[in-house]
Amino acid sequence: MKKQVNVKVFDILKSLVDNQVPALKHDASRGVDAGAKISDLWGRIDSLHNYIIANRYDRADVREAESEINDYEREISDLQRAAARFNNAQSELKAAAKFYHTYNAIAKKAHIDALQREYDMLDARADKLSDLIFACQVNIDPDNRDAATCAQYSNDITRYREEYSQTIARLQQVAHKIKSLSH
């Protein structure tokens, strides 16, 4: 048995994804430069280590350099967390993009199905109106009816033709929408 997908469930899931995407985009934008900044900071730390080796007897300069190294290491730690959030955000954004693709396909199919049902109802309505017009034309024979009945049939034919032309116009619009959504 084929399982039917409930579009309302996808609407709920879409609202959840919609709420998460802005934060993911923010994390993704913040982590873009993290790798380059980390490399730069490691270069600075290496330079400070070389400075400490060269100036190992000047305790004040060594303490200042060690303090800078600690600051850089904290900054590297923050950048590594940002890079991890960036990688996570990138993968979640890819998953969100796949979800949106699936959601759009399902929503499109549901919309096409609804339009197809409307098309079928309009087609049945047009057939019914065509039958009514034909029946009125057959029954309008003035030899078999009085003038009031003929006038009523004439009014009915006019009304049915107006409804028929409106139904056919709407039928063509729906057919065009179905065709445009199908491609």
What characteristics describe this protein?
183 residues; mainly alpha
Helix-strand blueprint:
Layout: H1 7-30, H2 34-54, H3 59-139, H4 147-182
Coiled coil: 55-132
Keywords: Coiled coil
What does the model show?
- By secondary structure, this protein is an all-alpha fold.
- It has one domain (7-182).
- The chain has four helices and no strands.
- It has helices at 7-30, 34-54, 59-139, 147-182.
- Helix 1 (7-30) packs antiparallel against helix 3 (59-139).
- The longest helix is centred in the middle third of the chain and has 81 residues, at 59-139.
Radius of gyration: 37 Å
Distance between the termini: 28 Å
SSE succession: HHHH
What kind of sheet is the major sheet? none
Question: What is shown here, in short?
Answer:
With 183 residues, this protein is mainly α. It has four helices and no strands. The chain starts with 6 loop residues before the first helix and ends with a helix.
